[in-house]
Structures are given as C-alpha cells and as structure tokens.
Amino acid sequence: MKRLIIVFLFIAQCFMIKAQDLFKMGLDQFQKGEYAIADSMLSLYMMQFPNDRNGIYNHAVTKLYREDTCSFCNEMFFLRELYLDKDAGNLYSKFCIASDTVFYDGNYVRSTNRKSRFMEIIESPKDTNYKTAYIHDKRNKNNTTQICYADLNRTKSSNIVAVYRLYEDSSKVFFFTQTPPSFPGGNDAESEFRKNNPDIQKAKAELNLSKFTANIEYIVDKTGNIRDVKLVSTKYEIENTEVLMKYINSIISSMPKQIPAKFRDENVDYLSNDFISFW
Questions:
Q1: Does a structural domain hold residue 182?
Q2: CB-CB contact of 220 with 226 (8 Å)
Q3: How confident is the model at residue 92 (pLDDT cuts 50, 70, 90)?
Q4: Which CATH number goes with the domain that contains 56?
Q5: DSSP label at 210?
Q6: Residue 17 has what pLDDT?
Q7: pTM of this prediction?
Q8: SS (H, E, C) the chain
Q9: Cβ atoms of 105 and 116 closer than 8 Å
Q10: What integer pLDDT is reported at residue 101 of this predicted model?
Q11: Which of 138, 210, 266, 271 is an S-S bond match for 175, by CB 3.0 to 4.6 Å?
C-alpha cells in the first residue's frame, strides 16, 4: 500500500512538471530501477507527445522491464512499421516473434531453390492467434513498398507485393496487396455516397458531433461483402460509443458491394482501414 501511495504522489506532481523534465526524470527513475515510477512519468510524457520516437522507444523498454511484453511488442511494432526504426525492428524480432522463410517458383509453388522468384517471410508474433506473412517478388527490385526487418538483406533487393495474416484455422486476411478493394464507380462515387448518407447527419444531431472523425476497420471478403466492422479510434472521446457504432454499422452496411481485393488474379479477404467524417 505504501508503494502505491508513493507512485500516486509522483503522478500527481507530474502534472505540474514540464514535458521535457518528465522525460528526463522518467529516464532517471529507470536507471535507479524504479520501473513503475518511470512507466508513469513516460506515460504522461507520451500523452503530450504521442509520436515522439525516442519517447515511444524508452516507454516500450520500460514496459519490458516490468514484464509487460505485450505492450513492449506493440510499441516496437509501431516504431518498426511506421518509422522503419532498425533498432526497434531488431528488438521486435528478438523478443516478440519467430520467423521463417519460404521460397516459390514462377508459378508460386514451393521450392527449395533460393533463386526462386517469390519468397515469403512468415512472422509468428507472441500473444496473437495469427501469423504475419510478407510476400516478396525478387525480380521487381528497388521498388520496396514496406520493409520487413525479419529479412533485411533480401528486402533491399525485392518488392513486397502482399502482406497477410494467417489464422489458426488456416484462413488468410490480407492487409496489403497491389490490387486492394475498391468502391464501385471509383472515388467520386464513394465521395458522393458519403456526402449524401442520412445517417451521418442523424449521428451528428443525436451525439452533438462537430468536426468529428471515427477511424474504423472492416474486412471486405472475396465476394465484396463487408463484415467485422470495428471502431479503432476517434478524434475526441464521446459518451455513447454504442450509439456511434449503431450509425457506423448502418452507414457501412448501406454501402454497395465492393470490388474485392486480388492477389495473383484471385479474390482475397482484405482488412480495410477507413474513416467516417461527421463534419
């Protein structure tokens, strides 16, 4: 109990301390082995500077020392994917995943020949029920779309043409292909659909929304139908997220059937990241 009171007092005092001092004091507490206090200070610092790479990195390492491997891996993955941070990538590979490489010939059949056209880097993240696979085309060099730190040398001379999640039931959900799903009629048709959707105006009135954006994700399946709609984040907090989700589901369900994503000329399930503006 005494320990909790000390941590609480540190947190209360932190609200009156400048952000730069919070960061330095957090590092000092880390060096002293006071990981709970360091975590609290760095967390407050991250509230003010959520995209500071150095802050994210040190906050993640503090989480690891507190045996919160899941938070550590999430933050290192964020640094690796968004900022292409090599140190974060190496730590993510060391503590968070096991990886393997599969090679394919020109017909996308598994091969033992390392000169095959395609290769697949398969990562198995801890604390998840899926694997992440990056498919490289080695003949399309110097056009890399994403970087996978599980195999740095090869990604420098290849192009990632697809990324998918492989679930325990063997189902695949892509979240990058060169042919993603699209709205029938193109971008202009989609803009017109959203502009004239009555549920957007109803949600604004009922929830008193102003210049509000909801970030969402959903799966566009092989037939073009949309399922598994989830609310990821919002521009600012609102009291009734259930009502907001009711409107979001109504808006998304009223969308026409999508043109499915394709990989190697076959329709695939695709995880789409989207947003709805209640402006």
A1: no
A2: yes
A3: confident
A4: 1.25.40.10
A5: S
A6: 56
A7: 0.72
A8: CHHHHHHHHHHHHHCCCCHHHHHHHHHHHHHCCCHHHHHHHHHHHHHHCCCCHHHHHHHHHHHHHCCCHHHHHHHHHHHHHHHCCHHHHHHHHHHCEEEEEEEECCCCCEECCCCCCEEEEEEEECCCCEEEEEEEECCCCCCCCCCCHHHHHHHCCCEEEEEEEEECCCCEEEEEECECCECCCCHHHHHHHHHCCHHHHHHHHHHCCCCEEEEEEEEECCCCCEEEEEEEEECCCCCCHHHHHHHHHHHHHCCCCCECEEECCEEECEEEEEEEEEC
A9: yes
A10: 87
A11: 271
Q: How many domains does the chain have?
A: 3
* H or E element, residue 251: helix 241-253
- Asked whether residue 52 is assigned to any structural domain, the reply reads yes
Q: To which H or E segment does residue 138 belong?
A: none
Query: pLDDT of 108-139, one tens digit each?
Result: 888 887 678 888 888 888 778 889 998 988 87
Q: Which amino acid is at 137?
A: D
User: What tokens does 21 get?
Assistant: 């001092």
Domain residues for 206? 187-278
d(CA 194, CA 277): 9
Confidence check: pLDDT of 8 > 50: no
Model pLDDT, residue 85: 86
**Do residues 196 and 168 share a domain?**
no
Q: Which residues contact 72 (CB under 8 A, 6 or more apart)?
A: 60, 61, 63, 64, 95, 96
Residue 117 in tokens = 């056209």
Residues 74 and 101 in one domain: no
In this structure, what token pair is assigned to residue 79? 């640094």
Does residue 84 sit in the same domain as residue 120? Answer: no
